Amino acid sequence: MAAPRDVFIVCNNVDDMGGLQRWAHHMARLLAARGDRVVLVGVTRGTDRHDHHRDGSYAVEVLHREWRLPVLAWRPETPRHRLDLPARVRDLRRSAAQRRGAARLSELFAAARPGAVVIVAQVWAMEWVRLADTRGLRVVGMSHESYAATRRSSRYRRVKELYADVDRLLLLTAEDADAWARDGMSNADHVPNALHVRPKVHPTLDLPVVACVGRLSYEKGVDLLLEAWERAVAGRPGWRLHVYGAGPQEDELCAAAATAGLADSVEFRGVVDDVEDALVEASVFALPSRAEGFPMSVLEAMAYGLPSVAFDCAPGVRALIEDGRDGLLVPPGDTAAFAAALGRLMDDRDLRRSLGREARASVERFRPETVLARWDRLFDLLHSTLPARDEAVPEEAVPGQAPLGRAGEGALPVPEGAVVSGPALEGDSF
Amino acid sequence: MRPDASVVVIAYNDARRLPRAVGSVLAQSLGGVETVIVDDASTDGTGEVADRLAAAHPGRVRAVHLPSNSGGCGRPRNAGVERSDGRYVMFLDSDDVLDRHACLNLVSAAGETGADLVSGLCERIFLDRPEGARDRIKPWYPWLYRRSAVYGSLRERPDLLYDTLSTNKAYRREFLEENGLRFTERLHYEDLLFSAEAYLASGRTALIPHRVYHWLVRERAVAPSISNRRAELANFADRLEIHRRIDMLFALRGAYELQRVKDAKFVNHDLLLYLRELRDRDPAYRARFLDLAAGYLAELDPRVFERANPMPAIAAFLVREGDHAGALAAAEYDRGKRPELRAPLVERDGRIFWGGLPPADSPGGPLAVRARIPLPGGAGRRVLDVTDFGFHQRPLKEMRPANTVTRLEMRGGVVHMAGHVLNPLGRVPAGAALSATLEFFDRRRPGRKQRAKARIEHRGGRLAWRAAFEPRRRIRPFGFVDPVWDVRLRVRAGAEEMITCPGDGAGSPPLAGVALPVRPRLTRLAGDRLRSYVTEGGHLAFLLEGGLPWGRPARAAVLRAAGTPTGREAWRRVRRLHRSARHLLTSRSTKARVFNRVLSRLPVRAGQVVFECHLGARYADNPKYIYRELRRSGGPFRAVWSYASSPKGFPSDAVLVKRGSWAYYLALARARFWVDNQGFPDGLRKRRETTYIQTWHGSAYKRMGIDQPRLKCGPEAERARLQRMVDRFDCFLVRSEHDVATLVRGLGVRSELLAAGYPRNDPLVGGLDGDPELAAEVAELRRSLGLGDGRRAVLYAPTFRTGPGGRPVRRMDPPIDPAVFARELGDEMVLLVRPHYLCTTRLPPSARAVMRDVGAVPDVTPLLLLADALVTDHSSIMFDYALLDRPIVLHLPDEPTLGAGYFDLERHAPGPITRTEEELVAALAGLDAAGAAHAGRRRAFARRFGEHDRGTAARTVVERYFSGGGRRGGTA
C-alpha cells in the first residue's frame, strides 16, 4: 500500500442527511482506516444535522457557521443589472466572506505533508478551494450526477468554469467522463462510489414483495412505478409493493394509489433506518427514477442479492445493471415495459435467483478495496515524479504545481519553492 | 525507475516556437514526464534554445542534436525514441502543443487497459481566425473518438486507418522495440506508414475521447509546414509511395479487408484534399498530377469506387478515366451546405448520371472511347449513377448550378457582365418565363443587398445572362466596415427561383483585377473602387480599394485605430449592443411579453379569426375546411391565415401573416377566434374574449401527450408546458369515444369536447356533389398528376420512422422497387407516394411511368378522394380513409415497433397486413378480392373510429361558435 497521505475532502456541508454526505463520511472512514490523515471540510453547516456514524478517525472542519449571503455569485448580464447597487454590495460581502473561508482552508492545506490531495466533492465548494493556496497539493474535483443532469442545470456553466483547471475531474461512470471529455474537459476521469454495506443476511427471494427505496419526489418516479404496478399486480394476487421513503409527493402518491384501487397491494412504509430491514423481506427491487447519478440504493439491493428493475435513464444505472444478467433495464418512461419486467420476475423464481446471484457477484467491482485501489492509482499518477538522473536535482523532486487559475497552456510552470510542512492538525478541529 | 512517459519534441529552424511546445510538456499534470528535444541540425539557433531549455530543467528536458539535416520528421523522431527512457513514448512537433492532461490521460488509459497504443483526440486550431470563432477549432476525425474504446486488433475497427497522425498517441516502449517500429526516413508522410504499421502490430489499441493534441495551423504562414505543402508534386509522389508501401504491408499480412478500408480512405480523404486545390494550379502541374493519381488508382481494387463515398468515388473514377473536368466538379461538389453543381448530368434508362456523357454498359461506349483505360463492365454505370441525389426532382431553390462568367469589363462608367448558367437535365424548360437579378452584398452582412437587373434567356442548353449597369449608382458600400463584396445571380424561372454564384470556368476571361468605380457612403477615403478577384472556391468577389492619394494612409490609420485594445473593445461593444438590441426587438420572448402586456389589451376586432395549420406549414386540414364553410356561410368575419415560410398556396381573400412576425402576434392578440390543428406559440396568454378552437390533426394510434414515454420520463417542466398550452383550448374536436380515451386524456384536454367529427372528412362522407370548388381541385390534381389513363391510383402514405438518435428519418423510400412495381402492377396501377411532412422521398426518373411523388400537394383530402386504395402503416390517415370504404392495406415491415400503440392494430386492422415487398405486391394484385373480404372489418373500423363523422362537422362548428355575431363566449 502507498505511504499514508493527507487527504482533504471538501463538501458544501458535511452533516446534512444526503447521499453525498454519506459518501463523504464513508470515504473518510475508509481512507483513515488504512492510515491516511483525513480532514473532512464543510463550507457551511447543514440544516438538519446528522452524525453519519462519525467515529473520530478523521477530523471535521466547517468554514462558515452559517451562510446567509447569496448562494451563487452575482452575474450581471445586462447593463441594467450592472446598475443594481444592492446586488453589487451583497456580492462584495460575499467575496469577502469567501476569502475569509478560503484563508481558513489555506491554513489547513499548509499543514499538509508532501503528496497531499484535495478532493472537492461539489462544484459550489470549489469556489472556496479555488481561492485557497493549493501549492504542493493536487486538486481533484468531483461531480456526483450524470452529465445530462448537470447539462440541464445552472451547474453546467460552473463546472466548466470552476473545474477547468483542476488536476482531475472525477465522475461516477466512464460514460459520464466520456461525455465531459467530448465537451472539452480533458481532465475528466471516473471513479465509482464504493459499496458501503456488508450484508450479513440475505433475502430468501420467496416472499411476494417488491421494494422501492427512495425520496418521494418527482425525479424518483414513484408515480411511474404505481402506474406499472397497476398492470403488474393484475393477475398476480398476493404480491405487495413496499415503498420506503418520504418526500414532497407523499400525499399525492398515496392518493394516486388509492384512486387506482391499489390501496390493498401498496404500502407506504415511511423512512427506513436500516436499509437491511427493507431489503431482506423483498424479492424484487424497483428503481423507477427519471434521473440518477449513481444509484446507491441499487448498489445496496444488488449487494443483498436482489434482482432489480430500472428505467435505463442514466449512465450510472447502466454501469450497475447489465440487462438480463444481474437485473432488468427498460426504456425510460415505458411503464408497460416496466410492468412486464416486474411481471417476469414476479412469475419466475429461478430468474430471480439467477439474477440475484449475478448481482451479488457483480457488485464485487465496487468493493471498498477495489475502489480505493483506483483512487490510489490516480493519486500516484498525480504525484508521480521523475527518477533522479543524478544527485543534482533536489528541487525537481516535487514538481511545481502552479496555483489554479493561472495563464493557459504554453506558459512555463512557475518554479516552486520549498515544500511547506507545518504543525499537525489541532485537536480542536472537530 | 523510469519516467512514465517521454515526449519527443522534434524541431527544425523553429527557435521561436520551440519553448512553447516544451512548456506544454513541462506543464503536464502527470509528474513523471521527460522531454527529449531533437534538433534536426537547424541553422537558426534552435539548437541553442534546446540546450538552454535543457539547462533550465535538468533531468526533465534533454537536447539531442542531429549531425546533419534529415529533411523530414522520420529521423529526428527515431533518434528521440532511441535517446529516451519513458515507459510510454509520445511525439510532439515544435509548432504544436500538448493538452495539459495529455500524458496523464494516455498513460492512465494505457495502464488501465494494458494497451500497446493509446490514441486521443487531436484538435486543429486555426490561429488566424479570431478567438472564440466557431471555425477556429476543428477536431480531427471526431467520430472515431466519441467514446472510450479498446480494440483487440485493427480488424475490429478498420476505420482507425483514417487517423494516421502519429502525434496524438502514446506507444508502449516495449511494443515499439519488439516490433521494430520506426519511421521511414526518406519519404514525407512517414506518419501514414508508421501508423498503419503500429495499428497492425498493436495487440490492443485504446481510444479516449479526451483532447490530447493541439495542432496549431497558420493558414497565412510564409512557409507552410510539410504536411501543408501539397503544392509540390514530389510531395504527392511521396504520398503515393507511402500508400504503395502500406498496400504491400497489408498484402503481406493477407489483410485484404483492411486494404479496402485504406483504399476508400485514400479516395475519400487523401485524393480529395489534392483535387480541391487543383483549380489554382498551372496546367502542367495539373496534367502531371492527374497522371500520377490515375496511375495509382488503376492499381487499386476497382471495388473501392463502390465502397467510398459517392462523390469522392466519382471524382476518383473520373480521374482514372481521364475526365478531368468531371472529376474536379465531383471533388468540389460536397463542399459546404449547398454545393455547386458544376458538371452536366444526363438521364439514361431512367437513371441520372454524372458528367454529361452517358457511361456505357460495355467497353466501347462513348466514354471508353475517350478514356485510355477500358471500362470494367457496368462499373462506371454504378459509380456515376447520381439518381439518389435527386437532381431530377429537387426544387430548383435547393440546387446551385454553376454560373460561368464570360465577360466582365468597364466601359465608360458602365460595367458589362455576361455569363451562362448550367441547366441541369433541362430542369428550366425552354418555355419558362425567365428573369434574373444580380445581387451584390457585403460578405459580413449578407442581408445588405444591392441589386442590378440582368437579362437572361435560353441558349444552347444553358441559360445565358448579361447585365450592364453603372456601379457608381447601383453599389453603395459604407466604407471601412465592408471591405469584401460577393455577387450572386438570382434566377426566376416560372414559379421557381434559384441562386447561382458567378465564377470562373471554361471560357472565362481573366476575372481578377477589374475595377468598378463606387462611392462609399461614409467617405471616399475608405476607397473608390471595387476590384474583382476570384475566391478559393472559384467565385467572383470584390475588394474595396482606395484610389485617392491619401486613401491608403487613411485606411491604414482606421485599421490601426480599430486594432488597438481600445478600438477592439469599442468595436466589440458596438457589435454586442447591436446584437442585444436586435435580440431585444425581435426575439420570441420579447414578442410574447409584448403580446401579454400590451397587445392583448388592445380592443378585440369583432369577427377576426386567425387560422393556422401545422404551425403555418400549409393551407390544409381541418382549419381549411372550417375557413371554407365560414366563407360560404357569408357571415361578417375577417380571416387571417398564418404561413411559416411562403404565402404561396394560401387563400388570396384572407389576410396573410408570417408566423412569428409582429403582424402575426398583433392578429392573434386582437382575434375573436383562434382556429388551429396543432398549437399556437407557447408563452402567449390567451385573453378571455378569444375563443380557441383546437381541431387537432388526426385520431391516435401512437401514444400522445403524457402517454408518451418521452414525456413520462422527462422533467416536470415539460408536462407543465404541455398543460399550459392545452389549457388555452376552449373547444376540442373529437371523432369518437376512442379520441376521448386517448387524445383527450393524453393531452390533458379540459375544454369543451365537440363531438362533430373532422371538417376535413366532410367531403369523404358527403362526397363532392355540393362542393364544386373542391371537385375542381380534385379534377385539377388528377390532371396534373396525369391520372386520366384508366389506371387505378394507389396512395402510399406512411408515417415517419424514428431513427437511432430518436429523430425522424428524413428519407422515405417507396415500399416496392419501381422496376418491380412497373413489371407486376404497372399496367393497372399508379402509386402516389406521399411522405410524411417531416420526410422526403426520392423516386428515380425510371419510376415516372408508375409512381408520383405527391409530397408537395398541400392538402391530403383531395388525394384521399382520388385514390382508389390506400397503403399505409400506423399513420392516422387510415382512420380518415376508412370513411370512404375503399380498400386499405397495412404495410408493416418493422413489426416490433408496433407494441407501443393505443390498441392492437392487428386485431382491428381495416384490411390485410403485409410485411414484405412480395406480400404487398400480392395484396395489391388481389385488391378487389381482398377488398371485398375485408369490407366488414373496414366498416367496423370506420364506425369505431369515426362514429361522429357525419359529413356536417364544418357546419356544426360554424353554427356552434360563429353564428350569432361572434359574441358568445366559448367556455360558457
From TrEMBL, chain A:
One of its GO terms (molecular function) is glycosyltransferase activity. SUPFAM superfamilies: UDP-Glycosyltransferase/glycogen phosphorylase (SSF53756). Keywords: Glycosyltransferase, Transferase. Residues 391-430 are annotated as: Disordered. It comes from the Bacteria. It comes from Actinomadura fibrosa. Coiled coil: none annotated. Its EC number is 2.4.-.-. This is Glycosyltransferase.
TrEMBL record, chain B:
It is found in: Cell membrane. It is a peripheral membrane protein. Keywords: Cell membrane, Membrane, Teichoic acid biosynthesis, Transferase. SUPFAM superfamilies: Nucleotide-diphospho-sugar transferases, UDP-Glycosyltransferase/glycogen phosphorylase. It comes from the Bacteria. Residues 6-178 form the Glycosyltransferase 2-like domain. Belongs to the CDP-glycerol glycerophosphotransferase family. This is CDP-glycerol glycerophosphotransferase family protein.
